[in-house]
Structure formats: C-alpha cells, structure tokens
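Input record (one chain):
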Amino acid sequence: MQKKVQTDLESRLFHCGPQRLTTAELVAIVVGTASADGPSTWLARFGGLRRLCRAEVAALDDFGGIDGRRSAALRALPELFRRYADETLPAGETLASPADTREFLTVRLRDKPYEVFCCLYLDNRHRVIRFEELFRGTIDGASVYPREVVRAALAVNAAAVILAHNHPSGVAEPSTADELLTKRLIRALALIDIRLLDHMIVGERGCVSLAERGGL
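The corresponding structure, as predicted from the sequence alone:
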C-alpha cells in the first residue's frame, strides 16, 4: 500500500507537473514517505519548509516519523537549492533576466545568519565572469572597503558589477548607509571605467533593487 501511494504521488508529479503538488506532497516524494500527511504535520510543527530544512538534527530526531535518512534528505535540500541557483548564472553566459539574478541572489544569501557583501562580475556583454563573497560581517552589518571591491573587479577584468548583500533581520529595505556606500562605489568603479549596474539587498521575501529605486 505504501509503495502504491508513493507511486501515485510520483505519477501526479510527472503528469501534472511539480507546481501542481503541495509543499507537503513534494516533501513526501523527496524523503520517501507514504503520503503527505506526515510532511504536513512536520511543516506545521516547524513553521514552513525553510525552518523544517534548517531545524537541528536533534529536533528532527525527536519528532515522530523523521528518521535518520529522512533527516539527512531534509538537511541536504538547502544546499541543493544553492547549487541549483549557481547553475542559473553560469560563467560565460549572458544574464537572461533580472528575475534570474534575483532568484540566484535570494537563494544564495537569504538564509545566511550573518551579513555578506558580494559582487557579481560581468564582461562588456553582461556575461557572467564570476560571483564572489567579498566581505563577511555579523548579524547586523559588514565592513565594506571600496578599494578591495575595485581591486577584485580589476583582477577578473570586469566591465560591469552587480553588488549584493543580505539583511539577516529579514527586512530588505535599504538603509542610509547602504545608499551612501553605493554612491561611493559608483564613483570608485567609474574611475576605472567599470559600471555599477545595481545593488541588490536580500531579505526574507526577496530582493530590493537600488537601481529600480533610483538609487544609482
């Protein structure tokens, strides 16, 4: 019976598409449960998919139905998300859309418990050269040195740069310090003919673009 239920879920995924399944049903397929009943309870208990996947192993072990194999599958999911996002912006390919950039940055930065300042380096055709985490801070800030940003951009022969950092508080609204730093970096990069295309701030619900806000 368990195998039949599991096969039914998999059949629905292939015939209807994963977007038609609930989160609990998708979790059931990934961890190999007989139905979505268990995952529905887990999601309610931990407060959603992100918190379920980030839960401590001991907390998962204490909860009924999550054995070692299922716990391992859940803990592996966030890293798979990050690696999937890495491949949405492969080196040498032109940025397909702002949405791809937002998705990439959100997956890479949203769940970090500390602030990280990053650069996405592009060539003169806006093809991706590389993504780099330049500065790591604490829960409420990171020290950013324009000289190091310029040096790093020159090292990869970038023609353009997209900046990004996360707000561990979850609120993506740019601070006055964010806006001032962006203006400093625009000036510093302009001196060596590198364009600053955007500065994106990642929060709980996605990215805020300073370019869209008129901050560049």
